[in-house]
What we know:
Number of helices: 10
CATH topology of the largest domain: Rossmann fold
Order of helices and strands: HEHEHEHHEHEHHHEEEEHE
Shape: globular
Bound molecules: xanthosine-5'-monophosphate
Radius of gyration: 21 Å
Strand content: 15-25%
Number of domains: 2
Helix content: 40-55%
Distance between the termini: 42 Å
Amino acid sequence: xxxxxxxxxxxxxxxxxxxxxxxEDQLAALRAQIGDKKVLLALSGGVDSSVVAAMLIxxxxxxxxxxHVNHGLLRKGEPEQVIEVFRNQMKANxxxxxxxxxxxxxxxxxxxxxxxxxxxxxxxxEVFAEEAKKLDGIEFLAQGTIWPDILESEAGIxxxxxxxxxxxxxxxxxxxxVKILFKDEVRIVGERLGLPANMVYRQPFPGPGLGVRCPGAxxxxxxxxxxxxxxILREEFAKNGLEGKVWQYFTVVPDFKxxxxxxxxxxxxxxxxxxxxxxxxxxxxxxxxxxNELIDHxxxxxxSEVPGINRVLFDYTPKPPATVEYE
Length: 327
Ligand code: XMP
């Protein structure tokens, strides 16, 4: 049965059985709502939109059209995983748009953090709207709204990330199949829908992506250094049993250079900052202390494998006073 609000007496979904019962109800509700019409979904590869996609593929198959916009600020391997899981394995109707050049050209030379965020958000809506306009007969827009989004928008904490922002001539009815769920429930439902664990249990990743981890004006070479160092960090955390245990971990490559020496020659390169944090509500954050062995290993790998880096620094600042992200 479709419901707009989480019933006060709803049992928290903590087991596969409860997830299966929720999925069965939702599939029936989605089929009743959508009938034989088409649904559009912006599929970022994040937990919420991925679970919505998996649910809709089960409910209405290729009446769902997924659009994955690669803004060039995704982590290493992310667009490839979206294509592999949704197009190849789940047989989704997936439109992949590589808009890297378009985003990076618009961002070139832009140093102000808020302006960067606005450009990324605005351009995203524009690319998505362009794709939507090419399609015929779409009546619904699916979204990965979850229950905390609704509670926070009602409390005036943040605007609910709904269709607001899409041009006026694109009017869709909303489909929000996980909107009464909390995040932990979305993850269990995603697992039962057959999504890979590393997609369902992944750490939070900001909408503006690596753009906020490449402070100041983004250049392709420095962005690549962020992407490569992030991939090494994620690989090492996974190998050392820290994946899924540490809330969030990432690298930042700031826009300044310092002197170093390699193979007897002077270098003048960027530092790479490692940040690993724990939290429950992201309002207050503590720092994860890594073992000395892991620190040494990370330094060695990043220095030898990532072009343009000659120093590795660790950010041991809690929030407050520092926010999690750098911009
Ligand atoms: P801050 O930097 O505000 O980050 O301490 C708190 C948490 O929010 C994530 N974050 C974002 N998530 N869109 C998102 O979806 C964004 O624009 C954004 N900015 C920050 C950040 O990664 C951290 O988990």
